Prior knowledge:
mainly alpha; 67% helix
Amino acid sequence: xxxxxxxxxxxxxxxxxxxxxxxxxxxxxxxxxxxxxxxxxxxxxxxxxxxxxxxxxxxxxxxxxxxxxxxxxxxxxxxxxxxxxxxxxxxxxxxxxxxxxxxxxxxxxxxxxxxxxxxxxxxxxxxxxxxxxxxxxxxxxxxxxxxxxxxxxxxxxxxxxxxxxxxxxxxx
Length: 172
């Protein structure tokens, strides 16, 4: 087969692969259900980048929409004062966990607990950060970095972190 024969064969193979591949359309990153509230929060964060509460809400909405990368980038690009807010750091820890970075998430939760040590944080934040830090500690102890990739080990870590022992003392 000559050079033109090989050219025709390669062109035919490339054309058949192209035709078999079909048309690929763009897909939205976020689902249609929550995009309106996300758009409102995005506008609020864009106009007031120092608003830690709006940034936390937007990052939380991104996480609920299963877009931890958007939440991660949002927090990473926020001003340092906003990033250091314990509520934002708490959402950041969840972002890291959703991205399969349990050890970094544990460090972030420890930063939340350190910032709340003086009693300046809301009770829900302290309780939530303590519980998540306990679970993350168990994950790290088991060597699990990505909780979603290892659901069995994650369940064990959750059980180990949340079990309670009760002691009943009989007084005579």
